[in-house]
Prior knowledge:
The structure holds two protein chains of two kinds.
Chain A: H1 2-15, H2 30-51, H3 57-62, H4 69-80, H5 83-96, H6 99-108, H7 110-125, H8 130-134, H9 140-174, H10 178-225, H11 231-242, H12 256-270, H13 274-278, H14 286-317, H15 320-325, H16 333-382, H17 389-413, H18 420-443, H19 449-469, H20 471-475, H21 491-508, H22 512-527
Helix pairs in contact in A: 2-10, 2-16, 4-10, 4-14, 5-6, 5-14, 5-16, 6-14, 7-12, 7-14, 7-22, 9-10, 9-16, 9-17, 9-18, 9-19, 10-14, 10-16, 10-17, 11-14, 12-18, 12-21, 14-16, 16-17, 18-19, 18-21, 19-21
Chain B: H1 3-11, H2 13-46, H3 48-52, H4 64-100
Helix pairs in contact in B: 2-4
Amino acid sequence: MKTITYLWAGLLTISLPSLAGNEAIVGMNPVAVAFFLFFIAATLGITYWAAKRSRTATEFYAAGRSISGFQNGLALAGDYMSAASFLGIAGMVATKGYDGLIYSIGFLVGWPVIMFLIAEPLRNLGKYTFADVVAYRLQLKPIKILAALGSVAVVILYLIAQMVGSGKLIQLVFGIPYELAVVIIGALMITYVLFGGMLATTWVQIIKAVLLLGGATIMTIWTLAKFGFSPESLFQSVKETAGEKWLQPGGLVSNPIDAISLGLALMFGTAGLPHILMRFYTVPDAKEARKSVFFATGFIGYFYILTFVIGFGAVVLVGLEKITSIGKGGNMAAPLLAQALGGDAFLGFIAAVAFATILAVVAGLTLAGASALSHDLYVGVFRKGESSEEQEVKITRVAVLILGITAIVLGIAFKNQNIAFMVGLAFAIAASTNFPALLMSIVWKRFTTAGAVASMATGLFLSVVLIILSKTIWVDILGNPEPVFPYKNPAIVSMTLAFVVGIVVSLMTREPEAEEKFEEMKVRKYLGIGAE
Amino acid sequence: MNKDELKKILTDSDFQNLVKKVSSISLVFTAAILIIYYAFILLLAYGKEFLGQPLSEGSATTVGIPIGIGVIVAAWVLTGLYVYWANKNYDPMVKLLREKFRR
């Protein structure tokens, strides 16, 4: 552990002189670098502390179930609010106006769904992953294989999107070469997860959530102060500088089917994200799980309202021309607004916050992917559920390394690819592969192993194929003239069919054992008797 | 837990009552968030003019802004109401049943 810290200090000292870059909007910003180093030192300190408490499988995957509802609410918010939410949605509000708000609403409404349908049963029935719940009364092997596939697919796509986005951000803000930025992020996230497991990951997420919410709050108050704390006068200025179109719904929802499809993917995808679902095992019981969702929804909702003000603030105080000239899709709107408000020092702070934001998300993703590979695949499938704790944690650590290195390599490989569709695809897969099987296994007595396998396979296959056939890949990347699949998001077809196929196949098969177990499962599901 | 104990709990009228209550409450809340969100989406698709009009004569703030922020607040309020209900009703019932069956 110590050597790692020294290695880090060394690497950073070596790389600091090479930080100067003419592309950067900060260049060598002493505040950013100081903040950056402070954050890294603090998180590595936490990792060192957590390493002593990450020996058993329960400690490694679930932080010993010792996290409180409030802490987990913050950590969930930290796990969920990616750099894409912060920079992407503020950028969308800046460049498209009201439509950015529509996006963030979609990202939020999945949380109540988690609360009302999933959180408590998930906590009472599972051990470390959502696949535990799906497999609770069905046959372990086939279910675990498919659930692990679904989890790993979501995690890898999400990871690549985060890696590429963050490499570009850091390159732009600090002037570090792209590849080095990706390696730094990858190495840090591997360090957190490998040594500190879920405990370190949780605290990195909590710190990040506090920083992000704090930074966004300061920016919002500062922006509103320029307009006499009157939102109306801010909107008035937006109207004057960008036009009244910015305050009205625009082209995002031109086709109702498309809108509903996107809505389904965002809403139910959230309830099928493996790294989010995994966080529910870190609290002691269902009551705390419930509290976590309430706090998470509050923090995330509050944050999205702030990004709305930040995006509009950027339109007025930075100007559209400057926003669109630096960084595609207006992604630099928030950092540029920080610069306009508080000069390079505040920009440095916000840039460091964005960096912390990325790290917390990729650490959570890596841990979720590793748990799918080791707990679901290795222990569940190859060892038929029989494995010693030490062995399982060892395999997880190997999986963390493999996943981390894969993420670095893919992050570099996809450097110049258009990756905008990846998060959308990750949500579509989560909504179509993970969510239907998870929900039906919790609420439907007649659900069978064959039905679950057919449902997950259908969801995974259709969401991937339909994305390839849709405009984003078929036209924009492969250069065909017309998309085969007319909608931007496949969820309306892939998720619906995953449910239909799951129901039809279950009705065609009988699994008396699973039905009997469903009755017995009720006691644990509602009362938490026997929950781990 | 052996089969007899399980059977005892499953056939207990208090337990069956709890299952009924919790299922129906979660259905009601789920329906509420679905209705709020998809009403908003349909409004976006078919009521653009309505959302785009000024909130009051000459104001820059459009009707859509408070409605959009309202959906965010509504999502949070719904989770709060559910927590309130569960703390008040669900938890005491669980406690009662666990004591009854000494679990």
